[in-house]
Design brief:
Layout: H1 8-12, E1 15-19, H2 26-33, E2 40-44, E3 48-50, E4 53-62, E5 66-74
Antiparallel strand pairs: 1-2, 2-4, 3-4, 4-5
Length: 76
């Protein structure tokens, strides 16, 4: 299944799940994509409906580096 693109409104409603050293994979993210550990955040979208099912989009983000490794988390 293709991961949907989020609107600006949905992105503005995203929440931070973890930051910096609170992210289990932060050392891997720094090694793969760059930036400093303290600049990384794991984020989640508000619930979205896809094909009648409810899901959240999760991703890692670093200001100035970008958004990486998006995945869907099914809620129902």
């Amino acid at each position: 299944m293709e991961i949907p693109r989020l609107s600006k409104s949905q992105l503005s409603q995203s929440r931070v799940i973890a930051r910096g050293r609170g992210i289990r994979d932060v050392d891997r993210l720094v090694g793969s994509y760059g930036g400093r550990a303290r600049g990384w955040a794991k984020k989640s979208s508000p619930p979205i409906r896809i094909g009648g099912r409810l899901a959240e989009l999760h991703w890692y983000e670093h200001q100035g580096v970008g958004r990486f490794e998006q995945k869907l988390k099914w809620l129902e």
